């Protein structure tokens, strides 16, 4: 395994983010000598921090299936939208640029988001249709990345394509208390129109990639009903979607086992919900 850390700040990029990548051995005697899919993880943390429980442990879990993995330690408050979105888009470009070196299947990159990180991933998918990233500004994601990071590249929306998204107890909008806190950290005192613009169930289109999502019915921090609204919208457009609602489990389960259990919170261990990772691996394999 080879480790790679991209520190956005020290490489001259206008950002404090860090991308940590775990590339499996590329020896021809492994994985049939073929290129591998890659998962890029966005941890949660209400856009106030990024949770270590939803970062490296998730990467290692997916690597056991033979995938390359990376996680993005993106900018949080006081940084505001669209900083984290552009950091994620740049991370996708960066990983695709490493395809030949590490045998990455650039057409099989999957984004994985937890809680607020799920909102970040969902926002990325929301703008894949080429919509402006602001309601009153004609600038799509490709144009915004090029401008923000001062890149001397010709970019199109095709450069940001992904194979699918995995949403784990995702924040979808700002309607309940926990969701509102996340959006406040992301948007600050911005125009209310921007809150509506980043309401994911309201902005579903047929270029959103195949989606795997899971939530728990007992999540009192980020209510599952909004995830259900989102999945329903995808299905109405014929977008492939798989959704699992587990009856037990609090918010922030991560892997829902001892590996990611905070000692001060035994509720992080929930065996039934912990099967989500195996279900997600199977889902990725069906798309590869």
Summarize, please.
This protein has helices spanning 56-63, 83-97, 99-102, 116-126, 141-148, 177-187, 192-197, 225-236, 276-287, and strands at 2-7, 18-23, 36-42, 68-73, 104-114, 164-168, 211-216, 241-246.
Structural description of this entry:
The structure is a single chain. The protein is an alpha/beta fold. It has a single domain (2-287), classed as Rossmann fold. It contains nine helices and eight strands. Strands 1-2-4-3-5-6-7-8 form an eight-stranded mixed beta sheet, with helices on both faces. It starts with a strand and ends with a helix.
> Mind telling me the CATH class?
Alpha Beta
The figure for the number of domains is 1
Mean pLDDT: 93
Q: How many strands, what sense, and barrel or not for the largest sheet? A: 8 strands, mixed
CATH topology: Rossmann fold
Spell out the helices and strands N to C: EEEHEHHEHHEHHEHEH
Q: Rough shape?
A: globular
The count of DSSP E runs of length 2 or more, i.e. the number of strands, is 8
Spatial strand arrangement across the major sheet: 1-2-4-3-5-6-7-8
Low-confidence stretches: none
Number of helices: 9
- Name the beta content range: 15-25%
By CATH, the architecture is named 3-Layer(aba) Sandwich
List the helices and strands and how they pair.
Layout: E1 2-7, E2 18-23, E3 36-42, H1 56-63, E4 68-73, H2 83-97, H3 99-102, E5 104-114, H4 116-126, H5 141-148, E6 164-168, H6 177-187, H7 192-197, E7 211-216, H8 225-236, E8 241-246, H9 276-287
Parallel strand pairs: 3-4, 3-5, 5-6, 6-7, 7-8
Antiparallel strand pairs: 1-2, 2-4
